[in-house]
Amino acid sequence: MNKAKRAAIIAGNWKMNKTPKEATELITAMKPLVKDADCKVVLCVPFVDIDAALKASEGSNIEIGAENCHFETSGAFTGEISPVMLKEMGVKYVIIGHSERRQYFAETDVTVNKRLTAALKEGLKVILCVGELLEQREQGITEELVRMQTKIALGGVSKEDAKNVIIAYEPVWAIGTGKTATSDQAQEVCKIIRNCVAEIYDNDVAEGMTIQYGGSMNAKNADELLSKVDVDGGLIGGASLKAEDFSIIVKAASK
Ligand code: 13P
To answer: In testing the pocket of ligand 1, which one of 10, 13, 128, 246 has its CB within 8 Å of the most ligand atoms?
Structure first.
């Protein structure tokens, strides 16, 4: 596989953090620190922060994403946001299937597939999250599980649309725990995912797809994780809330 064939992407996932005012402050601080990045820089922010984030990032190399979206365009879905709404605001990316959505909000592989398909239809780029629980790793089913998550999520997605999908391998046991996967573990599973994408489509799609690692990636371990041939970037939670730390990860991906 040739890493040069695909874009490195460092994406922040702010989760349920930052008010619009705080979003403006954080992005204003980040802008000068990441301006020379030789990778894509994306910030996925809470829905209510999108407007402020778009304004604060104007004219910079920071692109804005959302953290979820519904699978319908409009209708009686109280509390939900549709891809068409995000698109009209100027959002470029959306995270789909984050383990916190799966764990706390009854997201399933099937609804992940529906959301992903709807987002792609609107021309959004999707960051699809897959990853195993600690128990599943201990049972030795990581490979089966991430392959199943990947296959179901991409069900019915054309080869052309698959080019707008980024996959983030996020072992659930490494999220917010400070317990990072080793770079070998990250590489092994990112490679499994890439092989799975090659099986679904072909080598070209697989080689062109950006596959990120996420789970306690930080300013200290980013270099090592990103040095792996199948790790094309990161999906960053906690460390994306600090301008300095996030910019160090962006620099690590720019080497
Ligand atoms: P942390 O970087 O806080 O572990 O979160 C990772 C994550 O869930 C990104 O989507």
So the answer is: 13
Q: Which residues are catalytic?
A: 98, 170
State the Cα–Cα distance between residues 167 and 169, nearest whole angstrom: 6
The predicted-structure confidence for 80-115, as pLDDT tens digits, reads as follows 999 999 999 999 999 999 999 999 999 999 999 999
Tell me, yes or no, if the pTM score tops 0.70: yes
Proportion of the chain above pLDDT 70, given as a percent? 99
Q: How far is CA 177 from CA 104, 141, 188, in A?
A: 17, 21, 21
User: What is the per-residue pLDDT across 23-39, written as a single tens digit (0 to 9) for each?
Assistant: 999 999 999 999 999 99
The whole-angstrom separation of Cα 74 and Cα 122 is 13
Ligand 1 neighbours, Cβ below 6 Å, are 13, 98, 170, 175-176, 214-217, 235-239
